[in-house]
Amino acid sequence: MIKILVPVDFSATSSNALRYALHLFDTISLEITLLHVFSSNPTSMTMKNIGGVIYKDSMQTMERLLESIQKEFPNVTFKIKIINNHAISSITSLGNSGEYNFIVMGTKGASGLKEVFLGSVAGGVISKTTAPVLVVPDAHLFHHLDEVILALGDSPLSDPKVVDPLRHIAKLQKSKIKVLHISEKKTDTIEKTLADIKDLNPSVEYAFGTGNTNQDLHDYITMNDSRLICLVRGHKGFFNRLFKESVTLKQTFESPVPLLILHDMI
Fold this sequence. Notes:
Rossmann fold, alpha/beta, elongated, 2 domains
């Protein structure tokens, strides 16, 4: 059974991410935990913790969401968690528990100051969790994944198992894997990584860009009709270069297609 954590704030964006996850993993035994996180403090005027009121209202809204989605996906097991705490710490704590195979989150594209506020939760979770995170852009509908792009830089993987979540999705969707090697010039270090993932039988494409890794990747995505991009986050190298322009992980909010973020922090 695949277990997925889906944070929801009852917006269209999070509902869309939930539906994407349901369609992506539709052919296997699936358990989805719907997580809603809110934050409240006692009020001095009423001496009453408003958290109880918010919790009750959230539970009613969650039950309505669950009722509508369960009718469409009757074979999926759903669980509910409603937590009075901070969103990022709550999501990452559950993600790091090892209980879930994936975290699936929705995000809205934005720029400037809006990017910081709208993307702070998704960006914070990605930077703090060790669980695979699938980020689904607002209003992006699921399509069969004929091909998945694994974008890599020059740093080799510490362990071939890092890409096991990608292996699972590729097998489930019967997807072809294309390694996109983005670099300023061709290097030999990519060969070790290709040897580690030879079981995926990937094709390889080299993109020698401008040095602006974010822009190079974005240009490739828009020009090649990609449907899922996989990135590997590590202590150094490609991922850090990709996101150095923004503390909220810039590509998360600019990508027109879903991103699968894997973690190689050894």
